[in-house]
Design a protein that fits this description.
This protein is an alpha/beta fold. It has 6 helices and 9 strands.
Length: 208
């Protein structure tokens, strides 16, 4: 899915339901995760530390490192607003690498988008996005999304923002291209009733 091979990913998804679903609606994302975060199950939001324009979607608060705030995020439970179940703060790759939740909502940022030649890694500087040219930096951003896509024990709900026609940093066409690519890879859309896959741990993430 992250290596510009959508047909291969779709073939794998056709053999076994992928551990991902897609939504363009933030409220639907939160509703689905809250529906699943019952009993001992935990849910939380994650995003790339470089996804700077997610703040326009109301997702500007991020956990960056291993401190008391991160400990509270992983251990506290709703209605404690410090816990991941509050679905208010996104853990970045720095905070969640090596750790897992049962259900994860991944907010896709503008730092990794689909272009004519495949995935494009970008960084936000000043008032706009700049394409990342250095091969090592591009690999790092790609690997960031690989980490974020594998933080769930059961399933990841991918939220691709709808974009905005009034904001040049969040073009609708770019967001639509990301969502369309994920659909080509075999990622199903979140059902209106937000029903999700049964609780079976993720296997090897072959789609990535």
């Amino acid at each position: 899915m992250l290596t510009d091979q959508p047909e291969v990913a779709a073939a794998i998804a056709a053999e076994s339901p992928p551990p991902f679903v897609l939504t363009r609606n933030l409220a639907a994302l939160r509703h689905a995760l809250r529906h699943q975060a019952r009993g001992l199950r935990r849910a939380g939001l994650v995003c790339s530390a470089k996804a700077k324009r997610l703040r326009a979607e109301g997702l500007g608060a991020q956990l960056q490192g291993a401190d008391a705030e991160v400990v509270n995020w992983f251990l506290r439970r709703w209605p404690d607003v410090r816990g991941s179940d509050a679905l208010e703060v996104c853990a970045t790759e720095y905070a969640c690498q090596g750790l897992e939740l049962d259900w994860v909502g991944l907010a896709w940022g503008g730092d990794f988008v689909c272009g004519p030649d495949g995935w494009q890694a970008r960084r936000f500087a000043g008032t706009g996005w700049q394409r990342v040219q250095a091969p090592e930096a591009r690999r790092y951003i790609r690997n960031t999304y690989r980490v974020l896509l594998t933080r769930a024990r059961f399933q990841t709900v991918i939220f691709v923002p709808p974009g905005s026609s009034d904001d040049p940093t969040r073009p609708v066409a770019e967001a639509d291209a990301v969502a369309a690519y994920l659909c080509r890879c075999g990622v199903p859309t979140l059902a209106p009733e937000t029903s999700m896959a049964p609780c079976q741990p993720m296997g090897e993430p072959l789609l990535l």
